[in-house]
Amino acid sequence: MPYFDTASAAPLHPVARQALLAALDEGWADPARLYREGRRARLLLDAAREAAAEGVGCRPDELVFTSSGTTAVHAGIAGALSGRRRVGRHLALSAVEHSSVLHSAAAHEAAGGSFTEVPVERSGAVDPAAYAGALRADTALACLQSANHEVGTEQPVAEVAALCAEAGVPLLVDAAQSLGWGPVAGRWSLLTASAHKWGGPAGVGLLAVRKGVRFAPQGPAGERESGRAPGFENLPAIVAAAASLRAVREEAAAEAVRLRALVGRIRSVVAGRVGDVEVVGDPERRLPHLVTFSCLYVDGETLLHELDRHGFSVSSGSSCTSSTLEPSHVLKAMGVLSEGNVRVSLPMGTAEADVDRFLDVLPGLVAEVRERLGAPVSAPPSPAPVASLVVDALGRRCPIPVIELAKVIGEVPVGATVTVLADDEAARLDIPAWCEMREQEYVGEEPADRGSAYVVRRLS
Question: In sequence order, which residues have a C-beta less than 8 Å from that of residue 251 and are 6 or more positions away?
Answer without folding.
Answer: 348
